[in-house]
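[audit] Reproducing an earlier prediction to check determinism. Same input, same settings, fresh worker. If the tokens differ from the archived copy the diff job will pick it up downstream; this log only records the rerun itself.
[audit] input (594 residues):
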Amino acid sequence: MREWSLDKKLILMYTLMILMPMLVVTFFGFQTYSSNMKERASDFSLELLNQLGKNVDHYFNELDRISLTFSMDSGVEKALLPSGKSAFEQYQDKMMIDKALMDIVLVPFQDVIGTYFINPNGDIFSRYGSGQQVDYGNFRNESWYKEALEAEGKGVLIPTYYLRSIEGREELSFSFVRSLIDVSKNQSAGIFRMDISLNGLSEVFSSVGGGTEQELLIVDSQGHIIYDRDKSKITQMFPITLEQESGSIVKRIDGKEVMISYVTAPFSGMKIANIIELSELTRNVDILRNLLWTLTGVALFLSIGLSVFLTRRLLLPLKKMKSLMNKVENGDYSVQFKAQSNDEIGKLAGSFNHMVRKINELVHHIFVIRILKRDADFKVLQSKINPHFLYNTLESISMKAEVDNNYEVADMISRLGRLFRMTINHDKELILLAKEMEYVENYVSIQKIRFPNLSFIVDIEPEVMKSYILPWTIQPLVENAIIHGLAPHNHEGSIYIKAALVDKDVVIRIMDNGKGMSEEKRRDIQAQLLTNIDKDDDQIHIGLKNIFDRIRYYFGDRYGLVILSGEQGIGTTIEIRMKYLKEEGEPLAEYHGH
């Protein structure tokens, strides 16, 4: 059976809602009609509450967006960089944080009482909007501070409470806190707190229609009333438990029989409730019963026409907005809704258009910055390796020519030329491991002319030879092994390269039996690989840093380079781990959570 569209359902519902009470009074009497009135009131209340729930969610979502704006402020990000700054730089950092806090206070969001930022050192920055200063000096012992840390970057809403200022003034308010996460250290860089008055929620509730005899309120998940038009009830417990997502129930509260309708707001999880006394619902039933017979004939024609008119007038803009929202969900951020009126739908259309424009600007901005930074960083890293290799190789040729003065130099230059041609002819980001080993073998053959006692052993599985890796990742490590490992032993010794598949990754080990290094130096170099600070060659080899950064940029943080052994006198082992790629065009690190 084909399901009816929403407009047909509403037309039918409005028609029945007008006609059915008259027919019910005729056939079933006053009691049945009274029950029908309760049902109508419940349906209307749920529809009203659904609309109110969306507005409340939009309000809390806006608070979440404002807290994200603070965390993403460029001045705040700069101010949260590592310590070690001068007094003037610390003063500049304070000014940037204060400015970001003041920007939130000055935005057209008059509900903000005050904004605060607490860094891990316990320094408190604050700015005040419509309220007065609050002392948060004992923040470490406060439950909201612990909740913000445990939320790991997610916004936390603190339900309504009495906020006490330094001057002793108390004011009903609620707060929104968020921990700013330092991704590089995976820890909190500070807590942002925003205290908000109830004026905004009052405006949200006043913008939704409804009779003055009904009581509208918000209940949190623990059953506390966090907003009520009667402020004396705020922070008290709601007298009954609202277990379902939505519904209507009849209860006796304070000696009065009332109907309680409620829904759950999707974003915040709050219960939006509506309480109406049953006596209010049935007050006019007696009068209406006497008029029903007279109005039945007229209502039969008017109800259909009026329901059609009202339904279409109400639903057409909403259908259009729903269609545009589907386009936004599919990635089209160019849509705009043209409002024909200045009512709630018109205001909703304005908010929708503003939201889509902001999302479009943000997505475009982040996308462009990410591409430019990735491209620039990657090219800078690649450009560092070739001059370093050429310098060392040409130095070797020059020394050989000066010492031996024979024709072997011609063979060395010829082999070096092959390396040049391989480098110039290969301009792709990835290369077969077999091709990379061809580079390495050419380089080692040049070194063997100078150092005949150099031993070179390769043990690589055939399947691994067919995988794609980043170019110039093995050769620099072989070069380091010769220069830093075997050179102190008159370049006598062996270099052993082994590669295999381990858990769908390519693991390559370059081992030598040369000088080796102390455990302290090994740990120091490994630690420097994880920093973004450029070091001199004496502190960290440019080849190791370059290879490590390129692998992580391309494949992700779980890949890279590790120095496995470095005890004095027993040689050095370096392990490279890259993702196993059968084809050159497989996804990069950004698709693997980098």
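[audit] rerun output stored. Observation attached for the diff report: The chain has 16 helices and 17 strands.
[audit] end
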